[in-house]
Specification:
By secondary structure, the chain is an alpha+beta fold. It has 8 helices and 6 strands; from the N terminus they run αβααββαααβαββα. The relative contact order is 0.14.
């Protein structure tokens, strides 16, 4: 599974616990794709922690590339049976960096003083502010996401007005007159960028 999901939504602790119990009952590994984990952990309403993932998942990773690191992810193996000869498998498949300590240093720098959680939480707050601006104009979203990804339903005219100044991902048509776009904030999004986008949304 992914945390956050591909639509920016969250699993609750109760949901993840239930999934974990099913996996253990049927002897299946639970793997959590955490490419956007920082944005999930920082989202309003989230009740999961890194410790919960360590307790409930067999394997998960802490996203780096999308959450402020220069490259890479931090893989966490919690099942003792999985880590047997894991380093050897990494070598066999060409997944060991000659200067691997650089990867670890990034995560130490991001995590040791809470920077990782602060910058991803800020991105969530920016995204929610953008969503509120759309709502103020009577523009709805496809799903309610508390994270840095927002899926907005625009008329084709509104989409054309925004794409003259902004780059966003078109997710496809909703009907003949409307399209869904994905707007993302990130750890590097600036306040002034959000201010300008909000102003342009309110002028649609």
């Amino acid at each position: 599974i992914s945390f956050t999901t591909e639509y920016g939504t969250l699993y609750t602790k109760a949901e993840l616990t239930a999934i974990s119990e099913v996996c253990r009952k049927y002897h299946m590994y639970l793997f959590v794709d955490g490419a956007r984990m920082g944005y999930g952990l920082g989202a309003d309403g989230n009740d999961l922690t890194l410790a919960d993932f360590g307790r409930l998942a067999d394997v998960f990773y802490i996203g780096g590339t999308k959450c402020g690191a220069f490259f890479g992810e931090a893989l966490v193996l919690t099942d003792a049976g999985i880590d047997r000869r894991f380093k050897a498998h990494m070598k066999q498949f060409g997944a060991v960096l000659a200067k691997g300590w650089i990867l670890g240093l990034q995560f130490y720098t991001l995590l040791h003083d809470g920077t990782y959680f602060a910058i991803t939480k800020r991105a969530d707050e920016y995204a929610v502010r953008i969503r509120q601006a759309f709502r103020q104009k009577g523009i709805e979203e496809l799903v309610v996401s508390p994270t840095n990804q927002q899926f907005i339903i625009l008329s084709r005219a509104q989409a054309q007005a925004l794409e003259s100044k902004y780059i966003f991902e078109a997710m496809g048509p909703v009907d003949n007159d409307h399209v869904c776009i994905r707007v993302c904030t990130s750890w590097s999004t600036k306040t002034e960028e959000v201010d300008q986008l909000v102003a342009d949304i309110l002028n649609l």
